[in-house]
Amino acid sequence: MAENKKEWYVLRAIAGKEAKVKEVLDAAIKNSDLGKYVSQVLIPTEKVYTSRNGKKVVKEKNLYSGYVFVEAELTGEVIYELRNTTNVIDFLRGRSKQAPPEPLRETEVMRMLGTLDENKTPQNDEAYDFVVGESVKVNYGPFSGFSGTIREINPDRRKIKVEVKIFGRPTDLELENTQVERI
After folding, report:
1. Residue 29 belongs to what H/E stretch?
2. How many CB atoms lie within 10 A of CB 170?
3. Has residue 121 got a pLDDT over 70?
4. Contacts 24+ apart (CB under 8 A), 128-136
5. Which residues partner with 160 through β-bridges?
6. 130-133 contacts at long range (C-beta below 8 A, 24 or more positions apart)
7. pTM beyond 0.70
8. Would you tell me how many other CB atoms lie within 10 Å of the CB of residue 10?
9. Is the pLDDT of residue 20 over 90?
10. Neighbouring C-beta atoms of residue 177, cutoff 10 Å
């Protein structure tokens, strides 16, 4: 009998319960025969810097809310076990209810796994919202409380050059985009 290779499938889960689904599946993989057929369970996340009360806070955010990615060989009862996991709605599949679960294409898998690698560097949602000439206030660091004008934006380095007045003289500061907020 030819051996099926493991492919990536998407489980639709109740939004906000993705981590619980991963926890249950990881336990089942470790403690039952499901481990022979399911090798990985992933929830792609990204780290996002936000500013709360003048402090930098790192928060993890799901890239795909309501979805859990599973690398599995769907033979025998595996489909039934995965579909009937707590908080799982069903597999992502074709248009009809009877359509078999569709594996992800290789390009989609590479993009998802590549996105996981890229997201080791935290990103800021507001990184590219600033405009040269905009007035901002420094909210973090030694110049906290100073107001100034954006002179230059470097999205690659995630830096913003802000001109502030220190002792009445204009001075350029190179700050991270998380260190400033709109006035």
Report:
1. helix 18-31
2. 11
3. no
4. 128/153, 128/155, 130/160, 130/177, 130/180, 130/182, 134/182, 135/182, 135/183, 136/160, 136/162, 136/180, 136/181, 136/182, 136/183
5. 153, 175
6. 130/160, 130/177, 130/180, 130/182
7. no
8. 20
9. yes
10. 23
What's the pLDDT at 154? 85
**CA–CA dist 158, 180 (Å, integer):** 12
Nearest CA-CA partner of 11 in 76, 75, 77, 104: 104
Q: CA neighbours within 13 Å on the CB side: how many for 90? A: 10
Are the CB atoms for 113 and 44 separated by under 8 Å?
A: no
Q: Are 51 and 140 in contact (CB under 8 A)?
A: yes
2 strand-pairing partners: none
Residue-wise pLDDT for 165-182, tens only, equals: 988 899 999 988 888 888
